[in-house]
Input
Amino acid sequence: MTNWLEKILSKAKAAGAKLTDSFKKKTIENADLWSSCPECKKMFLGKELKKNMHVCTQCDYHFRISADERFKIFFDNASYEMINTKRLAEDPNKFKTELKAYKDQLKSAKKKTKQIASLVSAHGKVNGLDMICSSFDFNFNGGTLSMQSGQNFYEACEYAVKNKVSGLTVFITTGGAALQENLFALYQMPKTILGVQMLKENKIPYFVVANLNIGGVSASFGSLGDFHIMEPGKKTVWGFARPSCGPRNNFRTAA
Output
């Protein structure tokens, strides 16, 4: 009797697990199918939002998108080549909290975004002109500036000079420097500034387009463009401190 009951319970458990997995899969599919605008709350079909380049048709809010999606929109025919860069040591401080080790955060971010860092760069054509595009991905640890991100931007500048491109555009959605890397992250500020200086010395136009531009990024290469464009909306911020530190409503926003 016991063996018979165990078999029934085992089958029921397996069926329950299968049903749970199916439910989770459907939930993910539905999340991809529908999106809600953070500002006006209008609901969009995923295909509709993508067709409008991830911009709300009702309030003009610009959704935060992945670097890969950004490149597809930016370059002609969604055609581009990623710029490979030198790989640096990760987690130089062996940073760990009670919740999660930094190396585990990086591992999760890489798996989620399929990138080596929060900022990556690509080379392609824009209206037939050779252009470099560097882009942050907020899904990678809040788009924080790490050693690898700083290295990626610097090498993108070197690549631009070497190949004599028509310009370099950076899309910024960042939470600032990676606190887990402390001084190593701060070193990226002068490094990225030197990268921008290379562009200026070689008369290569540098464009900055920002959705969230704060901290060490806004205090370095995020504010040195020949042209600066801020995406519209109350949730887009340009300043040094985080929005919560602002003294009044709409302080440093595009509202």
